[in-house]
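Q: What does the assembled structure look like for these inputs?
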Amino acid sequence: MAITPSAAAAAYQAVAKMGADSATAGASTGATTGADFSNFLSQAMTDAVSTMKSGEQVAAQQATGKADIVNVVTAVNNAELTLDTVVAIRDKVISAYQSIMQMPI
Amino acid sequence: MDLGTSMLVAASGMRAQSSRMRTIAENIANANSVSPVPGGDPYRRKIATISANFDNELNASVVESGTPAPDMTAFRTQYDPGNPSADKQGYVKLPNVNALVEIMDMREAQSSYEANVNALDASKTMLSRTIELLTK
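A:
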């Protein structure tokens, strides 16, 4: 696998940007290199945020007495696990890129 | 996602047990509810119906609670001529609810609910521990 330092840096920037605006589920990336991972991460982040939103919706419904507490638990659990997975993968890949960038050339 | 599925199955069990608990609460609350008209029938005990249902989407058997079935056993009668619900002979029909039976049902529903909570908790812990492998 040929990863040039510049490509790694660009991809890392894309990833860092993704992490920064993950709260708003920003999907646009300026990366031309490492686009596959950016796309994956963007998709995963959007998914995670939408599961969190559905969890919040169910919780709000429960507060007004329209939803079962069991549904709230499952929805929030799902959201938590999805976000944990995405964050873990992001951290892992960022640390990989950092290792590449710190490589003496 | 087997662990995700097991969480949803456990949740369906919790839902079924809570609806069963609701039926039991109705029975206990109405244990002394007599008919509003003289000689009429009092509250009839309800039996929670719980059945297994295969969910094609989850590819697993989930629990489904149906509509409660009426308990057709005979009502208790009590001689109480002064009661407004008494019939011409002076007998009042009382609900066919046995408090001891309801309390046993309640305990059973509670234990089943707890078992489902534990199953859900275990599945979640297994998933979380697996995700933790990524962060090491």
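The CA atoms of residues 54 and 75 of chain A lie 7 Å apart.
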